[in-house]
Amino acid sequence: MALTGIQIFKLLPKTNCKECGVPTCLAFAMNLASGKAELDSCPYVSEEAKAQLAEASAPPIRPVKLGKGVRQTTTGGETVLYRHEKTFFNPTLLAATVSSDIDAAKLDKTLKIYNAFQYERVGLNLRPELLVVKDAGNGAAAFAAVAGKIAKESEFNLILMTENIDVMKAGVEAAGFKRPLLCGATAANVDAMGALAKENDLPLVVKAGSVDALIPLTTKLTGMGLKDLVIDPGSREIKQALEDQVGIRRAALKAGNKALGFPTITFPCEMASNLDMETLIAGMFVAKYGGIVVLSDFSTESLFPLLLERLNIYTDPQRPMTVIEGIFEIGTPNENSPVLVTTNFALTYFIVSGEIEASKVPAWLLVKDSEGLSVMTAWAAGKFGGDDVGAFVKKSGIMDKVKHKELIIPGYAAAIAGDVEEELPGWKIIVGPREAAHIPAFLKSR
């Protein structure tokens, strides 16, 4: 059971050193109890207290770090059943499958294609993280060759998938430096796979025929000293797979079942006959509650919608999605093109930029930081005032890009026009439409 703030406070050094970032040890204890602070932030806590606090403050679903390098990532670590209760923390990881019998030339081509799958969205670089090397039964040497090539020549991190301990050892020897996830512990080989994972300090997937059958396996592995586990209940029928995902999450969060308190791995690639259906199933697991989703292949029409779904679900609902402040070119604007300004709420940006693009009138769109608020809300909150907008226009650099001195402000912020004019002497402030849908007609009529 989680400790209260007062119980945590009793275990802290009570120095009030402020090195954790808050004024007192009591405040730090309260933050730790509510999940707003990390135990590592306290430099003076004793080892004995650290052991007690680490256990008490650990999330009900263990966070597991996967891979090394620029795409090192974490799965698990979740604390709520529903996103609106708090937030989801570590996004579902997306993986594609590469068979160990693939020839070198085709693998080179595949990696080149996969590496190109990167998408810019609201200032973020969206891309998949993992590749699964699946044992095709053609021997340990072939398995190791594919795993090693991907590990050395690609930014992707790896899942090594085989239940054959000798094949897995070869894969670890070739790609162990990339800290791959070993996917292959079952009731039949749990001792050998557990020993291999422990010896090399690697995370391990545990697979069983049901949720109940997972419990003795995870209990055995944790007893061996393994903590970084990922679980697979083995269900490959859609309805049962969804029920298992929900059941595992509820058992860990509501019932405190530590034997099931691990992230999950799901296999839409084994549940459908084509990539379209795989994508639909993967979308279900992104929402509920797959830690890793394995597809047979990556393609833009499948991957991009999943990345967007993941972005939306794993965006903190208490913090609006935002766009970076700056100048955005819509079309190919020139020195005579109109200049519009709006807030950095992502939805506002996409709607406004979309309507400008639809108008076929090239334009400059200035996006001002409003802490993720819409135009009307930002104006009401004093975060889109005339003085602020005028100062932003001055520092934005737009004056170096255009010859004219006209600025179009949102219709909902018409009240700031006078203040903007005072801040921008010589500029003409034009009040644009209140509704974004009217922007195309407005721009075309100018």
Intertermini distance: 66 Å
Percentage of residues in helical conformation: 25-40%
Q: Characterize the overall form.
A: globular
Q: Name the beta content range.
A: 15-25%
CATH T-level topology of the largest domain? TIM Barrel
Largest β-sheet summary: 8 strands, parallel
Mean of residue pLDDT?
A: 93
By DSSP (H or I, 4+ residues per run), the number of helices equals 16
CATH class of the largest domain: Alpha Beta
Question: What is the total tally of β strands?
Answer: 17
Unreliable spans: none
Number of domains: 3
Describe the overall structure.
The protein has 446 residues and is of the alpha/beta class. It has 3 domains: 5-57, Electron transport complex subunit B, putative Fe-S cluster (3-methyladenine DNA Glycosylase II, Chain A, domain 3), CATH 1.10.15; 64-313, TIM Barrel (Alpha-Beta Barrel), CATH 3.20.20; 326-444, 3-Layer(aba) Sandwich (Rossmann fold). The protein contains 16 helices and 17 strands. The chain has helices spanning 5-11, 25-33, 47-57, 104-115, 140-153, 165-175, 190-200, 211-223, 238-253, 275-287, 300-313, 346-359, 375-380, 386-396, 417-423, 439-444, and strands spanning 64-66, 73-75, 93-99, 119-121, 124-126, 130-134, 157-161, 181-185, 204-207, 229-232, 265-266, 292-295, 326-330, 339-343, 363-368, 406-409, 428-431. The strands form 5 sheets. It has an 8-stranded parallel sheet with strand order 10-9-8-7-6-3-12-11. A 3-stranded mixed sheet has the order 13-15-14, with helices on both faces. Strands 1-2 form a two-stranded antiparallel ribbon. It is globular and about 80 Å long. The model has no long low-confidence stretch (mean pLDDT 93).
